[in-house]
């Protein structure tokens, strides 16, 4: 009898083995990836690092930021592999981190929700400093030309920490509008855990949005700062989308009729329907459409129908079977858009797919893409394909998240990661002395865990090289939307 039972168990195991093997082949630990995607932000910190700093190869940096203008501008994040604080992408990063918590915070383990809020606050504390003076916004710290001529740790940097400032009535609608959005979104993220801080953020958001709306124009059009912000984070796509974006977030956070009127009445004036197939630090159109469409899908605000129409149209472009599909995919299945740092598109679009899927599901609606009916599950499958590609299901079998899996980029374009840690090498490594490490064929000595690099090109090719900065440089705004996507799949790993 005992032998029969053993034989039955062996037979069952043999029957299940192909299934187990196939599942294991595409298995990902989304919770582990989520933990690492949030940890990455600790490696990008500027300022005085706290005692609970986990990325312990980093040290204090930028402690004199703002002294030239008699303002404390310490803190915030370095946006990528250099040592400049660019507020435009930093504010967008903050908005997307906060949106990740708003939509998917309930999917996060409690410890990671806390870590995500800490990551948001590291930025909002800094951004509050940048708008602390009336009719003025500090938009950047650090001379990027001088900074990019050096390869040195942030702890050693000796280049000019120039402060770039916009005073009314000069325009800064883009940076101020995005900063207002960041504060409004973050106020919602902190509402239950720290209502006092949430109120400060919301109050500041209304003031900063007013500054953005009254002083219309692109910040990079100001001649006194243009050479410092361009071509790095110039406003290439216009400032109008940030005004609608900021107002939309204030409407979401306050439910105020004044902001509802703003996004209704200014939709055409500010070009809400223009170029809706983009979403990133410079172009908010697709994200704006998805954000506002929630009110329509909830069944209460049909005056905003045009935003939902734009959101539907955007979603349909992502579906290969749809007649309106025109998003490119690489041979391996990665969303591809021309230009550098392609994974910024893959992560933001994935985030929107998952957010919109939730909105559709909660309202029991589907999407009509011509003759094709699309439900939430199809949007999630497309999103999951992007997440899995980034985590290693791609032609190279490489995880594009540093520190996730056993095969990931070793030579990322990142100063702090590639130069020996100040903990191991306390002596100063001067501006040009870091070139030795940039040119080295060795892996970076410090692992920037959780960093998502710019990623492969349209042919799925990736060379692990610091020289190839468009592919090998991580950025905060690649990671931020991925936090939300990973939170969703950590709670729902078995969607196929």
From TrEMBL:
It is an enzyme of class 3 (hydrolase). One of its GO terms (molecular function) is cellulase activity. One of its GO terms (biological process) is cellulose catabolic process. Residues 30-486 form the Glycoside hydrolase family domain. The active site is at 413, 464, 473. This is Endoglucanase. InterPro entries: 6-hairpin_glycosidase_sf, 6hp_glycosidase-like_sf, Glyco_hydro_9, Glyco_hydro_9_Asp/Glu_AS, Glyco_hydro_9_His_AS. Belongs to the glycosyl hydrolase 9 (cellulase E) family. It catalyses: Endohydrolysis of (1->4)-beta-D-glucosidic linkages in cellulose, lichenin and cereal beta-D-glucans. It comes from the Eukaryota. Keywords: Carbohydrate metabolism, Cellulose degradation, Glycosidase, Hydrolase, Polysaccharide degradation, Signal. Residues 1-25 form the signal peptide. PROSITE patterns: GH9_2, GH9_3, PROKAR_LIPOPROTEIN. Its EC number is 3.2.1.4.
